[in-house]
Amino acid sequence: MTANSPTILALDFDGVICDGLIEYFEVAWRTYCQVWLPEQETPSIDLASKFYRLRPVIETGWEMPVLVKALVEEIAEERILQEWAKIAQELLLRDNVKATEIGSKLDKIRDEWIATDLDGWLSLHKFFQGVKEKLKATATSTVKLYIITTKEGRFAQQLLKQGGVEIPREVIFGKEVKRSKHEILRELIQGTNTLPDSVWFVEDRLKTLQLVQQQPDLNEVKLFLADWGYNTPTEKVTAQNDPRIQVLSLTKFAQDFSEWEY
Q1: Mean of all residue pLDDT scores within the chain
Q2: What is the mean pLDDT of residues 149-166?
Q3: What residue numbers bound the domain in which 175 lies?
Q4: Do the bridges between strand 8-11 and strand 199-203 make them parallel or antiparallel, or are there none, so unpaired?
Q5: Are 65 and 158 in a shared domain?
Q6: Whether the model pTM is above 0.90
Q7: Helical ranges in 73-130 per DSSP H
Q8: Distance between CA atoms of 67 and 80, rounded to whole angstroms?
Q9: 226 φψ region: left (φ > 0), alpha (ψ -120 to 50), beta (else)
């Protein structure tokens, strides 16, 4: 067992706090249509379900329209799971498009959507069961709560506000900070003078947790893989076999910190 509670609790947003799969596909499709200008601007019936299954390969937003492109081209799902980074770069190079440009288009589409149909945009997101209650309880406790996400921080804050979770903007570290999650964890530890073993980090992306593991000064940070998020059965098994990572269920997450076995 670890200490009864953390001094710092750092949470990923997408796949840990919020499930936005329906919105991800919709904004990815709209962006794909702007970048690749397909003749058919209505997605095929099964495209969304394929996208949902493959969501675990996505690390940052620009990849989502590229994943749509890969699926439209009927690249095998198994190959996407195994070689996504390579496939994404090949598609960018072949079609002479830049990740930054795709990301900017996607963010612009989101901004315009929020400005013109906020209720519609919000309706495509849902908080995982029990998460809002856990956030509210943590925010009023002695635990310092931070959110570290590859989503734009303003989008995360908008969703939290809609859900009735009031968290200061300065504790949300989004894509705009342009730093990796392990770098942000390091800065939080140094800035708050907190011992690394008092920092708990919950993330649904196994590769992100493994990157934290590779940092010698973060060796004692407690790492949790959210098994309800966007990860694959293979990744769950890998995490279960890693003594430095605790696979956390949604039921456990909602409970007292003392119930989070490590």
Answers
A1: 95
A2: 92
A3: 8-19+127-259
A4: parallel
A5: no
A6: yes
A7: 77-95, 99-116, 118-123
A8: 9
A9: beta
Structure tokens at 94: 């072949």
Cβ-based burial of 211 (10 A; exposed 0-12, middle 13-18, buried ≥19): middle
Mean pLDDT, rounded, for 10-30: 97
C-beta contacts of 168-177 below 8 A and 24+ residues apart: 171/144, 171/145, 171/146, 171/147, 172/146, 172/147, 173/146, 173/147, 173/148, 173/149, 174/149, 174/150, 175/60, 175/61, 175/149, 175/150, 175/151, 176/152, 177/153
Asked, for residue 42, whether it belongs to a domain, the answer is: yes
Closest CA to 16 of 221, 191, 193, 227: 227
At residue 236, φ and ψ (nearest 5 deg) are: -65, -45
Confidence check: pLDDT of 102 > 60: yes
Please check whether residues 243 and 205 belong to one and the same domain.
yes
Is residue 147 located within the same domain as residue 214?
yes
Domain count, the chain: 2
Q: Is 200 helix (H, G, I), strand (E, B) or coil?
A: strand
Whole-angstrom Cα distance, residue 105 to residue 220? Answer: 39
State both tokens at 15: 């796949």
What whole-number distance in Å separates Cα of residue 67 and Cα of residue 35?
13
Domain membership of residue 3 (yes or no) is no
Convert 153-170 into a string of H (helix), E (strand) and C (coil). Answer: HHHHHHHHHHCCCCCCHH
pLDDT tens profile 165-209? 989 999 999 999 999 999 999 999 999 999 999 999 999 999 999
Count of Cβ atoms closer than 10 Å to residue 3 Cβ: 14
**Percentage of the residues of the chain whose pLDDT score is greater than 90:** 94
Q: Both tokens of residue 20?
A: 């936005």
Left (φ > 0), alpha (ψ -120 to 50) or beta: where does 248 sit? beta
